[in-house]
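Hello,

I think I submitted the 4AD job twice by accident. Can you confirm which output corresponds to this input? Input:
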Amino acid sequence: MTRTKIKDLLNATDFGRQVTINGWVKTFRNNQFIAINDGSTINNIQAVVDFTNTDEALLKRITTGAAVSVTGTLVESLGKGQRVEVKVSQLEILGDSDPEKFPLQPKKHSLEFLREIAHLRFRTNTFNAVFKIRHALAFAVHKFFNEKGFVYMHTPIITGSDAEGAGEMFRVSTIDPDNIPRNEDGSINYKEDFFGRPTNLTVSGQLEGELAAMAFGEIYTFGPTFRAENSNTTRHLAEFWMIEPEMAFYDITDNMDLAEELLKYLIRYALGNCGDELEFLRNRLLEEEKQKPQNERSELDLLAKLQFCLENDFERLTYTEAVEILRNSKPNQKKQFKYLIEGWGADLQSEHERYLVEKHFKKPVILTNYPAEIKSFYMRLNETDEQGRRTVRAMDILFPGIGEIVGGSQREERLENLLGRMDELNIPAHEMDWYLDTRRFGSAPHSGFGLGFERLVLFVTGMTNIRDVIPFPRTPKNAEF
Ligand code: 4AD
Ligand code: MG
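Support: Only one job matched these inputs. Its output is below.
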């Protein structure tokens, strides 16, 4: 008999039918009731064993974690908590799980503990929900852009350039560290290396994305990116996934509109397609918050928070306006910020971003027109203002509980300006000739942004540590599995 997925059985009404289910034992109660999960849904099906007619030795092998195949009759359940169950006529153990050794017992485990056994944590309800939502969001990203006619562009993972100019790159090399080829002056001879030049893992697909946008009009990338920044926080990974659309003929306002539309589309998709998972995570969060004092609990539960995000326009303001708000804010006046905002030009830290979003506006915020000095070389320069301040057409989207979720800008399409900025920042123009060609041949206004995929999954699932929304997190001093 072919296997039926539990997800389909839980909604079935054709009682009396013979079915076979394969899955893993979650619990086995009273020598009679097996809760089985096969991953197709967060919910389990109950299989009822006639223990009086079942071999004692077989019953002993029905343990948490064991893989089983069960055949029996689908019946309406008399018990509480489920609508259907399977009356077992045949049971086979596909793979035993020693209850003395299996680390996942039917009780609540801490997320920290589960992170250490990330190879098994998929089998918990929490991670079932998180990774189902991650999947749904990834699918929805492609759906959104496909519906809009964007071309999915696979930009390289190994590159020779530093797209962000921040120098946080992982070197890719086949040079033997015990036998480094050297030039006469002692420097490393990269001509001997695999690619004949220094290469690294990409920090962003943007620069290559721009090349494609200047032919297809609208493209997006969605792939892994790598940053060797030593940030051991709940929001940074050394390997993370980024969605980077790049559009010809979009100015910064078009760019913001697209980003806001995308975020709302993705949240709406999760609400519409991951009901069971979100409901589970909502309740999980509510339980967790019961441990906290009243004033530290969230005002909105997970579903209400997502709904709120859909129903409200994101607040749009300039960096200059934001700095004024921050300068006059209570935590700044009372010196509670770790980094005090003294005036214009300061880089915003996550404490400032979170103040704006969580305390001041209490909704998602888009900040624009940052000082050129704190942003990347490719952003379009604005006219210098009366005070001689130089700003660029950057836009960052800040989310409650997350901080920066999107970073983007209108791009500098004027060759002279771009060369000037690269010169200021000591970015070697001769190595970027291919990039500069877009400005030499048919340059046009264009814009794009990067959405950090894990930060999005964090927001939608209500999880609090980015290590819990990617299957196998890579962080400083950790590359297990
Ligand atoms: O602001 P970032 O550095 O922008 C870029 O890389 C641009 N090239 C994007 C573009 O315009 N095409 O990164 C974009 C987003 C951030 O807003 C954040 O959500 C996420 O990527 N991000 C990280 N997520 C997890 N771990 C890290 N270490 C991250 N660094 C950035
Ligand atoms: Mg950024």
